[in-house]
Amino acid sequence: MEFKISKEFIAQIEQLISENKEKELHDLLLDIHFADIAEIMDELDSHEASYIFNALDSEKTAEILLELDEDVREKILRNLSPKEIAEELDELSTDDAADIIAELSQEKKEQVISELEDVEHAKDIVDLLRYDEDSAGGLMAKELVKVNENWNVLTCVKEMRAQAENVTRVHSIYVVDDENRLKGRLSLKDLLTTSTKTPISEVYIPKVDYVKVDTENVEVARIMQKYDLEAIPVVDELGRLVGRITIDDIIDVIKEEADKDYQLAAGISQDVEADDSILELTKARLPWLVLALFGGFISVHVLGLYEPAMEIHPELFFFTPLIAAMAGNVGVQSSAIIVQGLANNALSGSLFNRLLKELSLSLLNGLILAILLIAGSYFLLNIDVKTGITVSLALLSVIIMASLIGTFIPIILDKYGVDPALATGPFITTSNDIMGIIIFFSIAKAILGF
Amino acid sequence: MEFKISKEFIAQIEQLISENKEKELHDLLLDIHFADIAEIMDELDSHEASYIFNALDSEKTAEILLELDEDVREKILRNLSPKEIAEELDELSTDDAADIIAELSQEKKEQVISELEDVEHAKDIVDLLRYDEDSAGGLMAKELVKVNENWNVLTCVKEMRAQAENVTRVHSIYVVDDENRLKGRLSLKDLLTTSTKTPISEVYIPKVDYVKVDTENVEVARIMQKYDLEAIPVVDELGRLVGRITIDDIIDVIKEEADKDYQLAAGISQDVEADDSILELTKARLPWLVLALFGGFISVHVLGLYEPAMEIHPELFFFTPLIAAMAGNVGVQSSAIIVQGLANNALSGSLFNRLLKELSLSLLNGLILAILLIAGSYFLLNIDVKTGITVSLALLSVIIMASLIGTFIPIILDKYGVDPALATGPFITTSNDIMGIIIFFSIAKAILGF
């Protein structure tokens, strides 16, 4: 059922553009969903993308604008006059329009706003621009269906019909008092199943979940997921109903949050995509690499201190990368599990129990790996048993250390309000590398004596 | 507005349970949302959790069952008879009921099904159990609102009211023909804004997005996100309407998918949580560690081959962990960006362009890091310039190699239908470690000659 973009289809479009057949292009794209057209435009160069944009009707182009990759959208908007942009925004709901305006330069922003036709719409958009984009205010739309608690059902239905015209999806009908303070809600289901003569005060549900304008977006996402809500009303400091957040906006928040944790675990420090510029990618990647390099300097220095051991036990230096890598791997595993637990609010029990559990877990894993190491180094690498046992003991200690560090650094960071995902990735790997090498050589020195 | 679980509140509940005050407990929890009660029960021991469960009314307990952690739910269900479980399931929608039944043993499953009161409901649940849990069939619910294209609006509204009683949220009204084949949809908004005298055939929208029962769940998620759908109908092989998937089920799919990528990147091979048993956690973590250990054996072996260099250039062995770590870090960064690009369908352009870009990017990063390395090893570590330049050249080469491997292994895996996220984490780290060491010593040998 989904439209699949084929190479042939793209070639056909490019052909039509090069032959300047605007009418044919318009007809070809007539039945294609705006999300698919946006995908096609993302694949084309900016001249071709602009050509398509100009060939289409404005209800469709407004939606396409929303779906485009940010850099493609930027290029399209650059080619449009403030008046043309305003015409696109007039087609969009307030939250989407505000998101696009927020991407414009300050000067163009003001020009576009002054060109908006619908004054109410313009006022709502300007209002939304005030809020931090990571807050409930930044997520919400002004479009919603609300009724006054003092109305009777007949007035309600009439008013709602008018309001529903502006709302893409009606999730809930909110009930407010004369001061616009949120009092409760009416469900659509009740509307379908209740006789039309019932007065509002008798049918509305006085218990309603809501968030405040300054609630953080991840918190909004958590609440909507937990209580399984498809929309949630937003109130201001005085409890007045100012907007509504729908579940589709929350999906983006959830995805971004998960992507961010993943990127941090991989040592990428800001939100980047494969198609971003080399400079942006470098800015996101280099800081962690520089950190890791300086961590590497420390390990070089530490190893230098043990140079005297080289003559008697050169094999220790062959095992160093193995020990360091295992320390890094174990640390990343432990921290990833904790970071996810923290993100999903799924950590229960005391710190002491967690310590015990992590200790047992790393002991079990460490013992198995230590036995494999003794066997492997004896049979595969022809290392003598005494050295094998020494390295294995070191491995076991290093694994326990790494899993404890991996477990508790995220918990501590979280306690102090720092994003625990920071602790995964290069930070844990690097510090565990260094600690691993120190522990390894200390144990080796104690057993083998050099 | 959200209920916050405090330690005092939990203590109060434990107190009431120990004093066997069921009535007081019931009243205390009366106004608390089932999702919050489930969270409280997750914190308590299984005896206390069962006590709470028994003290509550059955509409609430059914919803609580759904929200509980899987292991807590398992314990509660173990204490219930098939008849009691069936009573809980009678309160739930078909998809949720099927999910819970699927967790039971084969024997108990059949007993519970035979105890279900509502025969239609039971039939629907049994039908849902047939589908793979990762397919559209496994996600969908049987509850939906549908009307026949041949009805008039009056019949429709009457029928819909009856149907809506069973549906928690009405997203769309689906239109079917006499054979139950999906023909289109009616939007609720149209319902609110159209005169009640209009015939169905005139108002329904013949274009409707749908998925097939065997569509993969991640594909369903992608389609619903792309087309911004809050619900999507599911049809069987003959195009007959068999169910409906709502956006809240899709959120779980999106989260699970993102969590899975993150876990793979951290070297955890199956879906585990911090609160799982030590055995389960070991099963998820040990395989990658064993793989990394064997990778480590290779690096020990390779380093052993270069033992002769030790006498003249011991410092090379001090730098080995640094080179290996940098190779691992760069590889993980590159692969993470590609894996996310693949997951979000956001990779455009040819393979050749991607190669060029990754080459330039790693050259830029590598050069900066190489200069830092020369400076750092000269000023901080007192390494002579020639060795410093040798190590830096090796670092530059290793970074280029690591970023190319990190970029193209996920792309190749994806081409052959393997989850590209597998390539991040220990797999890339380990292979880059080994490759890094080989490149490092080859370059050192060429320049320093040993």
TrEMBL record, chains A, B:
<keyword id="KW-0472">Membrane</keyword>
<protein>
    <recommendedName>
        <fullName>Magnesium transporter MgtE</fullName>
    </recommendedName>
</protein>
<dbReference type="InterPro" id="IPR006667">
    <property type="entry name" value="SLC41_membr_dom"/>
</dbReference>
<keyword id="KW-0129">CBS domain</keyword>
<feature type="domain" description="CBS">
    <location>
        <begin position="140"/>
        <end position="202"/>
    </location>
</feature>
<dbReference type="InterPro" id="IPR000644">
    <property type="entry name" value="CBS_dom"/>
</dbReference>
<dbReference type="Pfam" id="PF03448">
    <property type="entry name" value="MgtE_N"/>
</dbReference>
<comment type="similarity">
    <text>Belongs to the SLC41A transporter family.</text>
</comment>
<dbReference type="InterPro" id="IPR036739">
    <property type="entry name" value="SLC41_membr_dom_sf"/>
</dbReference>
<dbReference type="InterPro" id="IPR038076">
    <property type="entry name" value="MgtE_N_sf"/>
</dbReference>
<dbReference type="InterPro" id="IPR006668">
    <property type="entry name" value="Mg_transptr_MgtE_intracell_dom"/>
</dbReference>
<keyword id="KW-0479">Metal-binding</keyword>
<feature type="domain" description="CBS">
    <location>
        <begin position="204"/>
        <end position="260"/>
    </location>
</feature>
<dbReference type="Pfam" id="PF01769">
    <property type="entry name" value="MgtE"/>
</dbReference>
<keyword id="KW-1133">Transmembrane helix</keyword>
<keyword id="KW-0813">Transport</keyword>
<feature type="transmembrane region" description="Helical">
    <location>
        <begin position="359"/>
        <end position="381"/>
    </location>
</feature>
<comment type="subunit">
    <text>Homodimer.</text>
</comment>
<feature type="transmembrane region" description="Helical">
    <location>
        <begin position="286"/>
        <end position="306"/>
    </location>
</feature>
<dbReference type="InterPro" id="IPR046342">
    <property type="entry name" value="CBS_dom_sf"/>
</dbReference>
<dbReference type="InterPro" id="IPR006669">
    <property type="entry name" value="MgtE_transporter"/>
</dbReference>
<keyword id="KW-0460">Magnesium</keyword>
<feature type="transmembrane region" description="Helical">
    <location>
        <begin position="393"/>
        <end position="413"/>
    </location>
</feature>
<feature type="transmembrane region" description="Helical">
    <location>
        <begin position="318"/>
        <end position="339"/>
    </location>
</feature>
<comment type="function">
    <text>Acts as a magnesium transporter.</text>
</comment>
<feature type="transmembrane region" description="Helical">
    <location>
        <begin position="425"/>
        <end position="448"/>
    </location>
</feature>
<dbReference type="Pfam" id="PF00571">
    <property type="entry name" value="CBS"/>
</dbReference>
<keyword id="KW-1003">Cell membrane</keyword>
<keyword id="KW-0812">Transmembrane</keyword>
